[in-house]
User: Fold these one by one.
Assistant:
Number 1:
Amino acid sequence: MLKVIILSYFLHFCDCSHILVVFPVPEKRHSVLSDSLVKLLLNDGHEVTHVTHFPRETRLHNLAYVDISSKDHNAEDDWINTANDTLQMENLGLKYAQRALHHPNMQELMMNTTASFDLVIAEWFYSGLLAPISALYECPFIWYSAADVSWKSLSLVNSEVSTFPTPTQGLSITERIQRMWSHLQLIVRNYYHVAAKELPAYEKLFRDTFEVRRQALPNYETLVYNSSLLFINSHPILSHITALPINAKYIGSHHIEKATSPLPKNLKKLMDESSHGVIYVDLASSLISKNLQEEILQELIEALGHIKQTVIWKCDEIIVNLPKNLYTIKKPSQQSILNHANTIAFINHGDMLSIIEAAHHGVPVIGIPVMEDQISNIDVLVQREYGFKVDINDDLSSKVIDAIYKISDDKSYQARAKEARSILRYRLTSPQEEFQYWIKMVIQTHGTVHLRSPTLKISTLERYNLDIALLLILLIWFFTKVVKVFKVHFSDSNDDLVKKDL
């Protein structure tokens, strides 16, 4: 019996791998997701090195932190400073990746030639600059996207993804042409962004780390598209792209625990006694200060004061002259509030983390999107009638109140939200188990090469059909010149005939 116990002990640790997890975005919402992944890896017996802005105070024998936090930078200022950029998310993602890689603690890890890892998991936030990390340690690489899937993120693992926008029902031919033209412009700008900004940043940040290992600097594009898997923090019911390549996996709601933590007694009493229902509001302070003018915000607060529902507003700042039905809380348990039977609507900006939690608990969403990904997320909810979209303008408060009335009066919205909850929870296996399964698969098969698309080895010009587009443009130009030559020739011939007749 003792031999069996000893053998089981050693077999358990034989499967243990050393995994590096890198999350460069300095936001708590992203930290919630990374902490969940790390917890699942630790539960599976792996040793984890976690690169994060939010290291926890608790220490475990198989968990090491690389703290990349900085007092010199503020996430709220970053969002505001890039608000007017043409490629806002791409510039922001590049900035976050550069800061993470340039941090002294991260540089120390990267320059350490004795460090080794069996797998690298990095967050993809509109930049491929973290991919070369896996080449330093010569191990498999996995991308993780905290946002919904897009053609950009899918192209990381499958180049057969169409570069044209996803067809949308109800658009006229003019709207479809405009949409396609805008998308083609975006592709060209993105290509320029990678060539002009990401590539020089890669060479600057990684040249020394490869030289210290006596290795030549690998091709950047090859490294970016060399990932084994793409994990996506979403679900088909919440996504505008439901069909995925075999090496892209939806694991949305992996951060949600089976048991929801209980509400504080005073908050539970308030919600229990709210017979007309509860409206929960969570609007990021950084986005409010930039995009919601003080007058509009005050109008929204006053408008919410005239409804019969109780309003619970997550807010870090003190708001004076609050209506009797509006209560502010600094750090509420969002899932516990959404899980309460009297919660009838959730007002937020539309980040995927909040949308997944709302869907998991069957609560309709009233979205006030600001960022590119938030707009896309809310559009999906509106299309499937799980919620409403409210644009930021002078009519914001009245439209929010109209949406609340429609949700409270028309029970079909809550019914569809409950339907989404059932679909989200009804899975062959839990997202936590699926994540753990694919981690083992990647490590044991040394990168799941058998699942990769063979077309990933083609160049960017071929991947986006830029060479064909250029050829078509040249052909069109050539034919226009030929037509002009024929016109001139026949014009001269006709003139000669007229002269002969005379």
Number 2:
Amino acid sequence: MGNNISFSDLEAGDYILVTYAGTVAESYPGQIHDVLRIELLEDNL
């Protein structure tokens, strides 16, 4: 398992992976329910 980071560690343009078990609301902006994990990915995908 990776390291815990805070929201302030994320920057505009970062690539993330969101794992969730709920629904995605059809709103703007979209809302993801029941988020289980957010991973910060490497820049070179």
